[in-house]
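Run: sequence + copper (II) ion -> complex structure.
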Amino acid sequence: MPLLSRRTLIQGSAVAAAYGIGAGIAGRFGTASAAPKPVGIDAVLTEGMIDGKTATKKLMTYALAGASEPGLAPVLRMRKGEEFAARLSNRLDEPTTVHWHGLRIPNAMDGVPILTQPYVYPGDSFDYRFTPPDAGTFWYHPHCNTLTQIGRGMTGAIVVEDPKDAVFDAEVVLNLRDWRLGGDGQFIDQYKARDAAKSGTFGTVRTANWQTQPDYDVPAGGFLRLRIVASDVTRIYNLRINGAEAMIIAIDGQPLPRTTPLDMSVIAPGQRLDLVVRMPESEGASVDLEDIRPSRPKTIARFRSIGASLKRDLGDVAPLNPNPGVEPDLSSATEVPLVLSATAENSAENSICGSLGFSFWAINKVAWTGDSADPTAPLAEMKLGRTYLLNLQNVTPHAHPIHLHGMNFKVVSSSTGTVAPLISDTYLILPDERVQLALVADNPGDWVFHCHIIEHQKTGMTGYLRVA
Ligand code: C2O
Ligand code: CU
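>> structure
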């Protein structure tokens, strides 16, 4: 199967002559709102080179309908405030769904089996149709048998464009993930029970866009917009840029009100990081995206300056256009206690969407896998339009990237000290941390709330909030 060439010249980099607002994409945002033609997305089995030595069999991915040799799932491009439609066709030999991680869309489009839609069985299809309200970097993945389906490759990036945003000299989307492969390049057990009960089971091969340390050519002295998606089932990254200066412009798809110099950024499963990297002046100089967790730096991807310098100045990078949202009214907020704990109670039932056979984790003492037909009561019943304060407490010795579907929250306070008032859909709660997340319950439906370390999700750290 084809993989991107190791050195990929950034499409269009030569034509984006000026850094400026809307330059280059003006005109692609029409005003007519005819129903969009659905994008055909097939869930497929494939094989391909992951470890650089042997083709890995039984990869699972998304492919555009009719694509002859499926590989890395395509980056789906949408436009803020414009309708998007996709038809998922299931060509796997097991049920699946698509969840659009971070998009605030109607509950019926959210992709959670039983709770929001039926399973999509092999040979069947499902039509998704929604209008993304927010611009930014998001991603899509199944919500059925997730440890296997995500673990074997089913993760793709989503870019929602805003015509008001600046156009940079180059853009690279990086989908970061690991693979559990043996020395023969084939999948080994996706998890070890003793690790699922701790930080999760790590992969053996690290990749970005299904490649080990891919290289990209970027105009010298230019601005590179880097959209990073952490789609691994387990790994938390401490990312830094070596060889250039960079600014953080968005976290978890949401623009920062003020661009912030990147020193090191912690990004957990489910999270996204948008950077502007100012490439070095001299042709051939390289810049590395590195992971320094737990210590020794590992290069994830490399960017090489090419051509004459564009002489950009990082001081010119303006914040992205803000997304719409409702400010939580803390004076009227109702508090919702949510305690993340370990549990010894083994209640894992077999399920159409797979079971690891264990319960290791719970929210408010209830263990649920999130995709089985036995949802317990909602963690909270919320009234449409009201403000809630999720009082989240982690009483485990492990970090959990906890993710809420369908709505964003704002980080209000944390026992770890001062926190940035970030707006997000995923919060990495540290061992013994207490955090307050405020939200306006503005989207009706049953919304899953779970740890994005998929072994934790699948062994009990899942619940849901009901908004009506
Ligand atoms: Cu990426 Cu239930 O989510
Ligand atoms: Cu967790």
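>> summary
The longest helix spans residues 146-151. The mean pLDDT is 92.
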